[in-house]
Structure formats: C-alpha cells, structure tokens
C-alpha cells in the first residue's frame, strides 16, 4: 500500500441532538441496545485502509466516548473535544491526527448504518481523484419555493442527496479548511469547502440505508433497517452448557422445570435444576455472555431457592437485548435413577413458552452411565446442552 492509500478518519459526534428530544446527546442515544456512535466506529474498524481515528465529542462527553471506544477493536483512537459547529469540530479532529496517512475520511457519528464497503469505495475514489463523497440521486420532483409559492421546478436529473462518508487527500482538505477559516465561510459539509477552492469532488454511489439520525422517526427507521441487516448478516451461533448437582436427603427433584417424584432431591443454591442450568449456560455461551455463575452467583442470597425457569426468563431477555433468540436446544441428562423418559414431554412443555420454541425444537434425552463414576453410583445427576441462536430484530431500549 502506498503512502497516499494510508487513511485516517475523523468522526464528528459533538451534536446535542435537540431534535431527537430527551436529555441524551445524539452520539449516545441508544439504537438496539447500543449507542449510535458505537455503530459508526464498529464499521470503521472493518475498513482496512484506516489506521487511526479522531472522534470529536462535546467536552462533557469525553468519558462516555472513551467507554464506547473501549468496546470496539479500534486502535490508535484520539478523542477530541468539539468546536462551536461541525466545521470547527472536523478541523479539530484533523489537527489531532498523527502525520502519515495521506487520505482523510470524514463520517458523521450519527450515521450508524455505514457499510465498510462504502467507506472503502469513497476512499478509493479520493485516492484517484482527490476528493469524493457518497451521494444518492434525487428521485422526487424538486421545486424551489419562496414566500409560500413555487418559483421554479429544478431538473432533478443532476441533483444528489449528499451523505458521509466523504474522503479527501489530506493536504487538499487541510487547505480547504484553512481557506474557509480565513474567509469566515461556514459550510454544511467538507466537500463544499473543497469546491470553493475550484477543485472537483467525485460522486460515489451511496447507500439508501446510510441515513443520518436527526429526529425520532429516523431512530425507528434505523432500528428496522438494522434488524433486517443483522438478520441476514449475523450467522447462527452455537453454545454448549453443562451442570451437575449431587443428591441430598429430602428436598424436591426438579428437572426441566418439572418436579419429578423421587426419594432424593438435588442440592443447590437455587432449585438445582441441572437441565435448565445446562440450557442457560449453553444460551449464554452462544451469545458470548459468560456463564450462569457470572449472572446468578451462588453467593447472592437473592437466588437462594430460586426457580430456575424464572432465571431462564432473564437469560432470554438478556439474549433479546443482544439481538438473539433461541432457535434449537438439545439436552442429554445423565442419571442412573430415576427413569426420566416418561417425564420428557412435560419438560419440553415447561420450557417451551420460556424459550419461545415449539416443543419439537427442544430435544431432551436421558442416559445412564452404566454404573460408572459418581453418576453411575447414583450420587447425583448431570446434564449437557447445546443451544443454537438466531439473530432477530430488537427494540431501541434493548428489550424484546
């Protein structure tokens, strides 16, 4: 890769978002359980040309921005405090970038659905032509109005709606910002500053889903688009879980949410339902969310004697907040006694409404260990589960 092809990015995200309503600054408004800004940064981390990023936020937003950066895999990120308007904020971001990269990509932090392919295409055009912007042809009739009256109908054939990302050769963009500052000119994007120098800006086919979130309806549309995209691009996930409990005197034997008649019960902090516990562990593992001990520690008195099916509800809510739902569960129960086959259908029926699955998508089978080991000696019962997750739409507040 030659020096000019090395790229840096500036992400202006200092807007207050008054038109969105509420008290949360726009970059930190939640979309499907994550802040808007995190989506833009996650997309940039997948653009191979970009080696450093300057994120520009309001001065009181620096700690939150640092936390968002920590959640991504981005390296070489500088967080900069913004100026009085977008143009000044971009300039501060430019000034904070290290020397080296010959291309600069500018992308609004309030455009969460950026595709890495579009960013790469805009960078390639800027490397070739000096300046480029994502753009969409205007498809509706456009009229110029004045005092409430139509004054003229414009030729839409030459009109475009401009998006970010925009990309420029670094020296050109710096020259354009310096000239605008000297002239006291304020532009609505960076491309107009380059145009004022008499330089041409290449139009690159934009993405209709690459919308800018400005008003509440934009959030709803972004949520729908994100859900559709994730359902197609996030492959199913598979997790494995295991649990075992020893028998103790008295007590109840609960497996798969069903109380099973037996002379002994399993010992545990909750109801010791090894079937449900194994399923919970498998679901959490598939979502990359740790294990049941992390979420329901045995040292917490709140879970003493807890009904495991209730804990499974909470696990499913957690999955929904991450954009996942159970698709299939397979469990093997290892027990020398009691005989469990007659109770399998009841276990499936008990777990079905909690998992949101038909009973046919919950497979439970039982086996013995032929007298071998502690399970074979009837010292306890163990269960192992495999769970498959599929991506689903999630609500803006992270609930299902």
Describe this structure in words.
The model is unreliable at 394-400 (pLDDT under 50). With 400 residues, the chain is of the alpha/beta class. A 7-stranded mixed β-sheet has the order 5-4-1-6-10-7-11, sandwiched between helices. A 5-stranded mixed β-sheet has the order 15-12-18-16-17. A two-stranded antiparallel sheet has the order 2-3. Helix 8 packs parallel to helix 10. Strand 2 (30-31) and strand 3 form a beta hairpin. The protein has helices spanning 36-44, 62-71, 86-96, 116-129, 170-183, 191-195, 216-233, 274-287, 292-295, 308-321, 344-355, 373-376; strands at residues 7-12, 30-31, 34-35, 50-57, 77-81, 103-106, 131-137, 142-146, 149-154, 160-169, 202-205, 237-249, 254-255, 258-259, 264-266, 324-334, 362-367, 380-391. It is 32% helix and 27% strand. The longest helix is centred in the middle third of the chain and has 18 residues, at 216-233. It contains 12 helices and 18 strands.
